[in-house]
Each structure stands twice: as C-alpha cells, then as structure tokens.
Design brief:
The protein is mainly alpha-helical. The chain is built from seven helices and two strands, in the order E-H-H-H-H-H-E-H-H.
Length: about 250
C-alpha cells in the first residue's frame, strides 16, 4: 500500500487519541476545581455562622444567669450579712442585750431571763439554712446553664472539624490547580499548528520512496529542513495495530 498524506494538523491532531482523553481529563479537573472552590466558600460561610452562634451561646449564658439568680443572690447576700452580724453579736452578748432593752422597754423585768447566746445561735441556724437554700437554688440554675457549656463544646468541636475539612479541601485544590496549569500548558502545545501526517502501510524497504511520493502535498520543498518522528509497528500484531490506530491519526 502506498503512503497517504492525511493533511496538515496541529501537534495534538497527530495524536488524536491522547488529545481527546487529555481534553476530557482537563475539563474534569477544571470542573472539580470549581466545585471544590464553591464548597470551600460554603464551608467558610458555615464556619463563620457557627462561630457567631458559639459566641451567642456564651452571651446567652450570662444573659440568662443574671436575671434568673438576681433575687436569689440578693437573698443570699442578705442572709450572709445577717449571719455575719449575728456572729459578731454572739461574741458580745452585752451589746445584744442592750439592743433588746432599748427596743423592749415594756419587758425589762423579763430581760434578765433571756439567754442571749441561745437566741443568737437560733437566728444563726435560720440564717445558715436560708443561705444553704439560696445556694442550692443558684446551683440548680447553674446546673441547667451548664448544658449551654456542653452545647458550646460540641459546636466548637464541629467548628474545628469543619476547619480541618476546609484545610484539606484547600490542599486538594492546590494540587488540582497545579494539574490544571500543566493541562493548560500542554493544551497550548498540542494546539500548535504546522504538523503533517503521512500514513504508510507496507514493506519497511519501501517507506522512503512512498513518503517521497506524497510529500509534495504537504507544501514542503525537498530542500526544507524538517523534523519527523517515525513510529513503526508490525501489521501482523493486531494488538499493536489497534493501539496505533487508537492513538495516532490514521485517516
């Protein structure tokens, strides 16, 4: 079979199989990069929202505790003051008696029967019981508010996980970006025009004359310097011929 001139093509046009697959892979990489970039943007937005919600949880905890415990806290403070005052009076029974005598003139005859330490101890017990009750109520409120801390910790853990995912996606997009750069550079190379494809099938000894017979169609003069890559496969090997036909321009 004589040689056949298949026409002027680009560099990529001479290796049609590779050019087609290469274009598909490059297109997929470009789409992947756009998709990952969109996901990173969405994750960053979600991260900012979760971070804001985390801050709001902390604010909510304090905003809830102050009005919820203000009455209990006031009662607790008053109880503590009473306890402190009674403790001082217990150390000075005379001062305690003087106060009673000044306010209870009508019962002066029975004042001598009072036992100041016993009366003060009773009042101290009442104050201590009140203090314990107020502390218990405040502790119960704080226990409920502690649930907000658990929620905050869970949200913070998810925020950290999202950060790791975002970092992984950023690393992936960097790798994809490098691959796309290589793809674009090679695409430019494959698109370079000025190649000529000649197909020859026959005895190896006849290749020179057959090619000479069709070079006139290329527009190249016999004296022009050219660079050629000759790929030879035996036609008796069907597998090699199939691979040759799948990759290189043959029509």
């Amino acid at each position: 079979m004589p040689a056949t001139y298949l026409g002027g093509v680009t560099i990529g046009g001479a290796v049609v199989g590779i050019e087609t697959v290469f274009g598909s892979v490059g297109g997929a990489l470009t789409t992947l990069r756009a998709t990952v970039a969109a996901q990173i943007t969405a994750i960053d937005a979600a991260s900012a929202l979760i971070s804001a919600q985390l801050d709001l949880l902390g604010v909510a905890k304090f905003a809830i505790r102050i009005p919820a415990t203000i009455d209990f806290q006031a009662q607790l403070d008053a109880s503590l003051q009473i306890g402190a005052s009674l403790g001082l009076q217990l150390t000075d029974p005379a001062a305690y008696l003087s106060g009673l005598l000044a306010g209870l003139a009508q019962v002066q005859l029975s004042v001598s029967a009072l036992v100041p330490s016993l009366a003060i101890q009773t009042q101290l017990a009442v104050a201590a019981a009140t203090t314990a009750a107020m502390n218990a109520k405040i502790a119960a409120i704080d226990l409920q508010l502690g649930a907000l801390d658990t929620i905050s910790a869970a949200v913070a853990a998810r925020l950290t996980a999202i950060g790791h995912i975002s970092a992984a996606l950023a690393a992936a997009i960097a790798v994809v970006g490098a691959a796309i750069t290589a793809y674009l550079n090679m695409t430019t190379t494959l698109g370079t025009a000025g190649a000529h494809v000649i197909l020859y099938t026959g005895a190896l000894s006849g290749i020179g004359a057959a090619v000479d017979a069709v070079t006139a169609g290329t527009g190249l003069a016999p004296s022009d310097d050219v660079r050629a890559s000759v790929i030879l496969v035996e036609t008796s090997d069907a597998g090699r011929v199939a691979a040759f036909n799948a990759v290189l321009k043959t029509s």
